[in-house]
Design brief:
The complex is a heterodimer. Chain A contains 4 helices and no strands. By secondary structure, chain A is mainly α. Chain B is globular. In chain B, strands 1-2 form a two-stranded antiparallel sheet. Chain B is about 75% helix and about 0% strand. In chain B, a hairpin with a 6-residue loop joins strand 1 and strand 2. Chain B is built from 23 helices and 2 strands. In chain B, helix 5 packs antiparallel against helix 6 and helix 18 packs across helix 19. Chain B has one domain. The chains are: A mainly alpha, B mainly alpha. Chains A and B meet through helix 1, helix 2, helix 3 and helix 4 of A and helix 8, helix 9, helix 18, helix 19 and helix 20 of B.
């Protein structure tokens, strides 16, 4: 997502090629300290190295395809930022649940999810939050007996 | 034969216990619901419900999850017919002729045809599972590690061949999935791999967390980007009774669709979506008057609807007999079985006959329930379409978060779930579908362990993979699959078959 500056030139194929090469590099670096073993007894580093090599080849193939292909592949369109508030809601839920309990964390998540969707009406959001929280408590805590802290 | 009957009797004995009937009903109801609602698919739903199944009895859990899968096929067609919106990607073709029939005031006939065709296909597919399960798992029991290694390779490659989009990207996603599955303590050497010293990663990445993030959260992000608000006028249903001419035209199409769907469903990467597309193409090709298609041809509705249901059900065959999931959704079923401490494979039939036959019997019962749920109660389901996405989106996110947390009460799990959501979103945006990744993640450990084991047995010689006849046959098939992927002509046809289709 660092290539946002020239959206007309960056294609989806190019990005996937770069992504594959990056992942391959990560797997390679991560498996360097693991023993390769022998063909007789493959070590813990054996499979990751194969995966890294395979993904490197595929990444290069994708980049080459993108470079030489006559037909322009689908261009990369930078995503809107607002929907990512939904993920921020999940992260917030994770950080809050053990500090302020489920009620607060869930309220935070639902409000952020509503903002991520777009225009919000405060009353509607509160009613929705109340209904959802009640439903979750009924299903997960009462019904399934999960040990979820409700309040701090 | 008596053997077979006693198995079926055992299966029904398990399936009709009140608990299992209840979960079957719950599964098909949920399936119909999410099938009708656009914006949430069966993969995401099953992923979301995985943590809940942890507390359920194992048979009931699998019965419910299976019900969601085939129930979604029924629900998807309802929306396609009434409002021209494919609730599921497998019902894209149903829109063509189903909605055309609805516009002619024959929505009721279309719904009845879809439901009865699906029920017929579901019944045939269930019988097929019963008949082939035993011989196939007998074959699978003779598999050695080298054979299993080659089977996994073949299954993964074939799934890639039949999946939509670029095969290079799909192979890359499988590899990425295998790589992610290696995180944690290596079972053979005891060394830590890619754990960065985090205790939470010693046991590897939780399948539930990965699935919820990659399938659930990323789907919401995609929907929020595109916007899925709908304003729709619902067609009147009209009479449900098909005319004699309808029946004469629909019945052969149902038979063909069932046969095609049953066959395609067994293949790795097959299943509901491809079956319905292939069946529509077939019906159009053999029709004397192809111009009727798109203008309310009942064959163009009956064929694909039967095919997708048959395919949805026969895709359980490789999972139940070989322990190899045929598509992303079956990979989720493997996850569900693992949570319950069951390793899917040919041994399940012997060690847990109640679970095995109970699950199969429940599929037929579930299809019967769907018939009852869908035809008389259609009005209730249509009203579901009125729920705006601005309510659904927070609700689904809430379930994602609480599901990821409640699974092992770990904050890190919830954080990972969010991260996988972003990763999944980014991957979808660059044209890499997450389903092959999930498949690779589930099959990765199987692949690595069988490779190590066969090399150990053969004392380091790679010839073991070609000297074992089963393994050699599977590997040569794999080579053929790779060649087919490389052929540009095939690639172009795939583009056509899957245009406008995604899961």
């Amino acid at each position: 997502m660092s290539d946002k500056k020239s959206p007309s030139k960056v294609t989806a194929n190019m990005l996937s090629g770069v992504f594959f090469v990056l992942v391959a590099a990560c797997f390679y670096v991560g498996s360097r300290n693991l023993g390769m073993g022998t063909n007789f007894q493959p070590g813990p580093g054996y499979m990751p190295t194969i995966i890294a090599a395979l993904m490197l080849c595929l990444g290069i193939l994708l980049l080459a395809q993108d470079f030489w292909s006559e037909t322009q592949s689908e261009a990369w369109v930078a995503p809107k930022v607002r929907p990512f508030l939904a993920v921020a809601g999940i992260i917030g839920f994770a950080l809050l649940i053990e500090r302020v309990g489920f009620l607060g964390a869930a309220l935070f998540l639902i409000v952020l999810a509503c903002i991520a969707y777009g225009r919000i009406r405060p009353l509607e959001v509160l009613l929705l939050a109340a209904a959802l929280i009640a439903a979750c408590i009924l299903i997960f805590v009462v019904g399934l007996g999960q040990r979820i802290p409700l309040l701090p | 034969m008596t053997d077979l009957l006693s198995h079926i009797a055992l299966g029904f004995g398990v399936a009709v216990t009140p608990v299992n009937l209840f979960y079957c009903l719950l599964g098909v109801t949920l399936g119909t619901m999410i099938g009708i609602l656009p914006g949430i698919g069966p993969s995401a739903t099953v992923a979301l419900l995985l943590p809940i199944t942890y507390t359920m009895p194992d048979t009931a859990a699998l019965i419910m999850l299976a019900g969601i899968f085939y129930g979604a096929q029924y629900g998807g067609s309802t929306t396609a017919i009434l409002v021209n919106l494919p609730g599921e990607s497998s019902s894209v073709v149903t829109c063509l002729d189903g909605y055309a029939m609805a516009r002619q005031g024959r929505a009721g006939v279309a719904l009845a045809t879809a439901a009865l065709g699906s029920f017929f296909a579901g019944t045939v597919a269930t019988v097929l599972i019963v008949v082939v399960a035993k011989p196939l798992s007998a074959v699978a029991l003779a598999f050695g590690p080298a054979d299993y290694f080659s089977l996994v390779i073949f299954g993964l490659l074939f799934a890639v061949l039949l999946s939509s989009g670029s095969p290079i990207k799909a192979v890359g996603m499988v590899a990425f999935g295998i790589g992610l599955s290696l995180v944690g303590i290596d079972p053979t050497s005891g060394e830590q791999r890619f754990t960065f010293g985090m205790a939470e990663l010693f046991d590897g990445i939780d399948f539930v967390v990965l699935a919820i993030g990659l399938l659930g959260v990323s789907e919401i992000l995609i929907n929020l980007q595109q916007g899925v608000e709908r304003d729709i006028g619902t067609a009147k249903t009209g009479s449900f009774m098909p005319t004699r001419q309808d029946l004469r035209q629909a019945f052969p199409a149902v038979l063909r669709g069932t046969a095609l769907g049953s066959f395609l469903g067994v293949l790795p990467g097959g299943g509901a979506i491809m079956s319905s597309f292939a069946s529509y193409a077939l019906e159009k090709k053999i029709s004397k008057n192809p111009a009727r298609f798109g203008n309310g041809a009942i064959e163009g509705l009956a064929g694909p609807e039967s095919a997708n249901n048959a395919g949805a059900q026969t895709s359980f065959i490789p999972l139940l007999t070989l322990g190899i999931p045929a598509n992303g959704l079956m990979a989720l079923m493997v996850g569900a079985m693992m949570i319950q401490g069951i390793t899917p494979g040919p041994e399940v039939m012997q060690s847990r006959p109640d679970l095995f036959w109970g699950l199969i019997a429940s599929m037929w019962l579930g299809n019967l329930m769907l018939l009852v749920l869908n035809l008389p109660l259609i009005g209730i389901w249509v009203r579901l379409l009125g729920i705006p996405y601005r309510f659904l989106c927070p609700a689904i996110l809430m379930f994602c978060a609480i599901g990821a947390y409640g699974f092992s009460y770990s904050i890190v799990d919830v954080l990972f779930c969010g991260i996988f959501g972003i990763v999944g979103f980014f991957l979808r945006k660059i044209g890499c579908e997450p389903a092959p990744l999930v498949l690779g993640f589930v099959l990765g450990p199987l692949l690595e362990q069988n490779m190590r084991l066969s090399l150990l047995i053969s004392q380091g010689s790679f010839s073991t993979f070609v000297t074992h006849p089963i393994s050699a046959a599977l590997l040569s098939l794999s080579v053929i699959v790779v060649i087919m992927m490389a052929l540009p002509a095939v690639m172009r046809r795939r583009e056509v078959v899957f245009q406008g289709d995604e899961d």
